[in-house]
Amino acid sequence: MDEQTAAAAGARPTSRLVVDVVRALRGWVVAAAGGVLLLGCYLGVSKETEVAYQLPYVVSGGFGGLALVLVGSALLVADRVDATQATQSRLASQMDDLHTLIIAAAASGAADADRAGAPNPQAVPGHGGPGHGVQGHSVTGQANAAAVSGQRF
Predict the structure, then answer these.
(1) What is the pTM of this model?
(2) Do the Cβ atoms of 71 and 34 come closer than 8 Å?
(3) Cα separations (Å) of 21 from 35, 40, 69, 77, 114?
(4) Whose C-alpha in 3, 56, 103, 132 is 20 to 30 A from the C-alpha of 9?
């Protein structure tokens, strides 16, 4: 598979794929660690009956776990935003390339038409040539038949 075909198919080099997987995985790992801290906080608080003994669990496990869940979520969102921006950048460059190709094709088509001279009346659809109507009947013949019968167009 050559480079253009691989690029058109959206294939990524292996190292880039590994980087993308690791970036997504780190967000999930940080969020899971926050979830574990929150679970530990809940288990610690649930076994204590006095509020004074529950506060250390809430401060260390609860706030820390909540912070890790938020950081993990932010990492996942940032990864998705980066992926979306990369896709949009790739599509914009493809649109620019397509625009360039269309302009070049139009310019070459205009140059070919200038070299060919005047357009051929036989090449226009619906015309059988000079003096012919829609179905190949002569326009002057139709006018003569209408004049004989007294009809107007």
Answers:
(1) 0.54
(2) yes
(3) 21, 28, 19, 14, 55
(4) 103
